[in-house]
Amino acid sequence: MNLELILEPFQYAFMVRAFVGVGLIAVVAAVIGTFVVLKGLAFMGDAIAHTAFTGIALGLLLGIGIHLSALFFALLTALGVVLLTRVSNVRNDTALAILFTGVFALGIVLLSTNPGFVGDLNSLLLGSVLAMQSREIALIGGFALLLLAVLVLFFSRFVLVSFDPIGAEAAGFPVVAFQSLLLALIAVAIVISIQAVGVVLVVALLITPPATAGLLTKGLKLQMVLAAAFGLASSVLGLYISYFWGAPPGATVVLVATLFFAVVLVVQRLRRGSRLAC
Amino acid sequence: MTVLQSGFALEVRNLIAGYQDQVVLEGVSWQVPRGSLAAIIGPNGGGKSTLLKTAVGLLKPFSYDTLTLLGQSPKLGRKRTAYLPQREEVDWDFPITVLEVVLQGRLVRKGWRGRLCREDYAASRRALELFGLAGLEASQIGALSGGQRQRVFLARAVVQEADLILLDEPAAGLDAQTQHELADLFVDLCRQGKTIIAATHDLDCLTECFDQVLALNRRVLAAGEPSQVLTEAILEELFARHFPKVGAGGEVMVHES
């Protein structure tokens, strides 16, 4: 392939920022998302993304920091989910779905009432990678470092409360505290990812790369490393495709991640099938 | 300073407990002396799991006169208590190795602070060796057989330095041979001064290794030594619908539908 063609996007500052920003987000989302996949929390991730959207909408309308208000709503949802699962053993997905779609609808209505924010509405739903400013990337980088630091610091404790919360709690371990902290990390990862791919697709960054990695390994740390690699590769390839085809970058990044998953799945099935045939 | 050291590993008096607004245990009293190998038997829904879970604080009791673990309040006592969940309650596909599971015994003791150190690893490897699991350290937990999985969790309890080990249906899904091996391990652990309480409906194994039995169906039908509890009359009342039979040699057969 022509080297000039490969380097072409990098002559634009906004593309360089997009590569750095989306790359950072994809890696952090993939690493944190490994826990989301293991615990089957994809639906909750979706709920957090949708309520965070309303947080952003309120932030815009009231003229306060959108990251702060998004974070507030995201954390509130995450903690609400912890409480909901503890209070009752019944399936909570119906209650959760009613709640988060209702809150999401409120956010859309709020934003639509003010014509000045229609552009924001679009970019929040589908992401606005190319509009990222250096300041935002610095903010994302800071949060990314913080998230990874907390994850490394408490890694084995997060594994404990994910693998055997019952046994751990029975022995007096602060299970609820660490489950809440883990959900808070997930909430923060979602909030910083919304800018890149938008509310609708943010769960894909969290879920697809770890799920792809999970097909290849039974080791948790390796799964995280592979997930980060798949996330990074998806964001780079996705941005290239977006640049040359003019498609929304959030969508192309998620599309590439999905293709990675499909290819790994098919290759694995074929290999397993041929092994059985022998 | 005087330390009130009760001789009981578990003591409950007039315990009323259950789920949400449904009462399962209707005033249960039971004392398990330290060093016992105790079984809770009874039909499904009779409150075996409820009793274990309430004892370690996984369920909040509605009311009680006494509830102690190892002579202390449950909050303190459970630091030296290990609870092994039912087979279905564990995610065996979780990407975690055998050694990592055993190490968690040390982690639960540390709580918020402290990293796993070399001594923790050494203790975990020793425990694995003790339970005949040497060489399986790096295996994913789900790759092990049912009996091996039980031993991994027992090794974790030992590493946790638990004095009281509670097990919910430990024999479920194990073949007869493996059940007997498990019973031998229980006896060994008791000789080391640990107390074991298992909820089970596997009565074959009971008559051989347990020295305390609680017949539980929402309330206590009988409690004490196996010879006093495992009588035909009590078993018939306990498993009314399962038609248990006591054989000539004292072995008990339960036919569950």
Describe the structure.
- The complex is a heterodimer of chains A (278) and B (257).
- Chain A is an all-alpha fold and 278 residues long.
- Helices cover 85% and strands 0% of the residues of chain A.
- Chain A is built from 12 helices and no strands.
- In chain A, helix 2 packs across helix 10 (175-216).
- The longest helix of chain A has 42 residues, at 175-216.
- Chain A is globular.
- The model of chain A has no long low-confidence stretch (mean pLDDT 88).
- Chain B is globular and about 50 Å long.
- Chain B has a 6-stranded mixed β-sheet with strand order 5-6-7-3-8-9, sandwiched between helices. A 3-stranded antiparallel β-sheet of chain B has the order 2-1-4.
- The model of chain B has no long low-confidence stretch (mean pLDDT 87).
- In chain B, helix 4 (118-130) crosses helix 5 (146-159).
- Helices cover 33% and strands 25% of the residues of chain B.
- Chain B has helices at 48-55, 74-77, 98-110, 118-130, 146-159, 176-191, 203-209, 226-229, 232-238; strands at 8-19, 22-33, 37-41, 66-69, 81-84, 164-168, 195-199, 212-217, 219-224, 245-246, 252-253.
- With 257 residues, chain B is an alpha/beta fold.
- Chains A and B meet through helix 8 and helix 9 of A and strand 5 and helix 3 of B.
